[in-house]
Specification:
about 160 residues; alpha/beta; Rossmann fold; 4-stranded parallel sheet; two-stranded antiparallel sheet; 5 helices; 6 strands; about 35% helix; binds iron/sulfur cluster
Length: about 160
Amino acid sequence: MGVNSDPLLGGEGFLTTTIEAFANWGRKNSLWPMPFGTACCAIEMMGVFASRFDLSRFGAEVARFSPRQADLMIVSGTITYKMASVCRRIYDQMPEPKWVIAMGSCTCGGGPFDSYAVVQGIDEFLPVDVYVGGCPPRPEALIDAVMKIQKKIEMKGAPVV
Ligand code: SF4
């Protein structure tokens, strides 16, 4: 893409990449999360955005409550069937490419609420990229999930092991 100024190469040569790899490098380092918090797990999510855990170190601190400006949905909290359609509609309003983190036991599988009113896992209506277990998960676990999303973007959508 440009002239290489590395002295080992004598100031000559070129750095090559693809447009897609360059775009993914930018995407992974500037995620704009759409927080969808409904219950206790959302408190831990807020902690991740605050100074102690400082998600800005990973380039993902610009939380957007407008879905059209977001590319990472973080669903944290109990999701009822009544709320599921709202959640899906917000997801649909986010532009591609986009990713989803399911944070907490409730979002991953209903948690302690084995009830007719509670969705038993948001993957019933959303394509989840990373699941974070725990009731609630520690903030570090959400940071780890964001790093997994970054890895997934870097690998161009390949599954993260
Ligand atoms: S997983 Fe636990 S902490 Fe999180 S929303 Fe459900 S009950 Fe609350």
